[in-house]
Amino acid sequence: MPRVFADPLGKRVMRYALILSLDGAFAALALHAAMALRFDAKIPPLYEAVLPQAAALVVAVRLAANVAARLHCWSFRLSGLPDAVRIACAGVAGSALFVALAGWLVPPGMPRIVYALEFFLSSSAFAALRFGPRVALRWWGEVLRRRSGAVRTLIVGVDTAAELLARDIQRDPQSRYDIVGFVGTDPAQIGRRLDGKPILGLVRELAHLIEYQRVTMVLLAIPRSDTAGLRRIITVCASCRVQFKVLPATFSLSERVSAAMLDDVAPEDLLPRPPVEFDRRELRRLIAGRRALVTGAGGSIGGEICRQLVYYGVRQLVLVDMNENELYLRARRLAEEHPEVDVRAEVADLREPARLARLGQRYLPEYVFHAAAHKHVPLMEDAPEEAVKNNVFGTLHVARAADACGAKRFVLISTDKAVKPSSVMGATKRVAELVVRDLARTSRMKVTAVRFGNVLGSAGSVVPIFKDQIARGGPVTVTHRDCTRYFMTIPEAVGLVLVAGLGDYGELCVLDMGDPIKIDNLARLMVALSGRVAGKDIQIVYSGLRPGEKLAEELLTEEEEQSHAVRDRIRIAKSPSPPLDLAQRLAELRRLAENADQEGILRALQALVPSYQPRAGVVAPRVPAAVGNAAAPRHRAVPERAVAPGNAPEPAAVPAPA
To answer: I need a labelling partner for 327 at 20 to 30 A (CA). Which of 91, 96, 278, 514 fits?
Structure first.
């Protein structure tokens, strides 16, 4: 053990000795220089005789002050303003000691101007010794960056984050960024310097500055909350054909900000609202040590539910899906990352109630999250029987299995397409809500339905489709210029599921997603994120609404709006009671689905969901709502999203035409 610490300690001692030796030499030289300046290099014999004693005294007091200020413990790369203040304080303390002791120990003392000159020269020498290597390293780093072809870079932002980012870049000789200056928002700051680089202009002048300074990279060190400003900057960068990166939304100034933190701007950064944060301590309290089962675990949403459940300390997690490849890979990854969790993977078809019942009895889950469903609107328009079998009766089978095994909570992931549905997918998800609502009347299990909007980045959603089309050079296909949707991120969607489903919020919950976004605007922004210009480099094509799609989706019916409340940015409502003869209607719907009677299925769905508006050309006469079934009211227009098997909503984008 002694040998382990000997070398580092020895190196530190040698380093300290070298620094203090140089400090002592600088102090002695400073005194001699001060005397020479005072007397024009002709020092009187009186002072020349006592100069050696005075030099010894000044060296002693300077070293004592420097050691007290710990100037020998110095980081040549990471020193900053507080360290400069330490040098100044040590200089003042050393001069005070020198003045106090010189008249006593070195009579008749030194001329008063000598004390001032010595203070100035000594402090300057100490500062040069400590900051000189950093200045030299920074200068040499700029030389190396320019020789290696580093890109000329502007930093947007003039606050602490921008300063820390610039400082980190300029300390690294191998950085690929050559900073030419900063761009701010305050005209009074123009011409000032931040970390040695000028503030060149305002954000509104960004296009001119990019051209004038020959910039090819823009780094955004600005708050993510200003999404409107972020979108404008991205549009300017795209029109100027420069690259851009941004600091992550979660960076903390209490930690070191570095260029390695920079990332490409993601679509979720452009949401016209701040992200919704959930109480992690509360989630851990609800989840830790529990047993949970997730259907649709191979999909985007189901997979994220699983990931967050193991993160919050679930004791056992059962993943259920028909996609055995995704199921296997996800279960294996979770088991490797969280060996303390009992992770099980089960291939099962939701249409087989006996299989689900056996899984329930085998694992006895306390929480069941039902994320599996058929979600793609156009496909379900062509195969309504499959939507009914999976979305309606799959939900019924999972809910009954959860109830039979004594689960404490059942959470259904629904969609805003279930409100005043115009598609088979939306209608079947609305019926699924009725199914679990009906079961909740007789079960001790707490049941919650959570409605999603469009989930950014989920499998099959609009963002991956747009990314693929842009990567292929376009065109980017949008259904309609005026099509709008509400959007949420995958973490927000799953946080909503966990908080609302496990936190006794209510039977029907919807995330407060702010204002809707036009799909056309989203497409153009994503083209800009790729560094290209919509309409020039990438064409935008409007394909028209597909079967079952609407210009705007709705989150709550009028009746639900009347009963709804908002808590922690979650909208909570009470759903209308299901019809009293729901069992008989479901039996008829099952028969029609098994016989693939598509027109009969549409009529049965319209009878169960009177607000359902099937696509044009399908004759589905209205059937009066049964006793106890409140007619579906009107709803407030809201953007589209569809939730499905662990995946997210169907986008308002279509594949590019061949």
So the answer is: 278
